[in-house]
Amino acid sequence: MKIGIPKEIKNNENRVSLTPGGTFELVKHGHTVYVETQAGKNSGFNDESYVKAGATIFPTAGEVFAAAEMIIKVKEPIESEYKLIRPNQLLFTYFHLAADEELTHAMIDSKAICLAYETVEKDRTLPLLIPMSEVAGRMSIQEGAKYLEKPQGGKGILLGGVPGVKPANVLVLGGGIVGTHAALIAAGSGAHVTIMDISLPRLRYLSEIMPANVDTMMSSQYNIEQILPTMDLIVGAVLIPGAKAPHLITKAMLKLIQPGTVLVDVAIDQGGCFETSHPTTHTEPIYTVDGVLHYCVANIPGAVPMTSTLALTNATLPYAILLADLGWEKACAKCPDLKAGLNVVKGKVTFPAVAEAFGLKCSEVKL
Length: 367
Fold this sequence. Notes:
Distance between the termini: 19 Å
Largest sheet: 8 strands, mixed
Structural class: alpha/beta
Strand order of the largest sheet: 3-2-1-4-5-6-14-15
Order of helices and strands: EHEHEHEHEHEHEHEHEHEEEEHHHEEH
Helix content: 25-40%
Number of helices: 13
Strand content: 15-25%
Radius of gyration: 21 Å
Mean pLDDT: 96
Number of strands: 15
């Protein structure tokens, strides 16, 4: 199969979808890999390293899209890339379609096969979302701590405090992969952490593995409202696979939050779990509503591409090889994990949560 690796052009997206090591494995399987020039530069991989791995370097994204049967990306296509996508072309990337109606309709119109990393499912886990969720969860505390600094507009609180001075209070909404890693990093910094979830079994598990400075609490509107006035940093880490995130903190609830508090919405890719959230970029990462700082960068792992690219390829490469070896139809028939990733196929929406988000018909994929 002919596989294309275009350069990511979303604002400050520094990751690349395939490492030279991943390229080597695909070439070893008899496939042809086309890489847009400088695609890996910001992740620490130059063109020469891809050539040594067996890839062919193309000067433009247009040439990569035109030559490839499968396009592997990191982030969803943006408007300038829509016209490059061909009917029956396989796109393997993060899409988050339920949060973007324009993108959804563009992919329907393209008649391409859109296989989304974030809905590939194995044993009730999301294996292609996990590595980036781990990075984003850890980064949420790193960024939150920075914006708690007074020069950044925050309260001026040191996350871990010092002897004789209390540490910051951190609230993590959601006890999944993002929430778990956020809580661990915050706790490791010395903060007092409360992690909320709606699953009692998950809370029991977290209570067993978390350090002593982490409390667990059942998530409900009442409990959230009770705890908001005492929080310094709040991380939104709620995920409903493939669907729009619920708003756990409404605009009205901001009046309960002290000025200078920082909200980090890691769920922004799926629409955000704070009503006042809207996507931001690494260039302009924050804004303020009612005195509360909002950090809503939609590609948090893009800030640490040397780590993120390696972690992402570790997860995606086995699936990419399967798709290349068998073609998408046989691969999805053989591997139910991959079939769950099909969101749009040849002009038809095939993932229920995406169809529901925009009132569209959901079609069954017949393999």
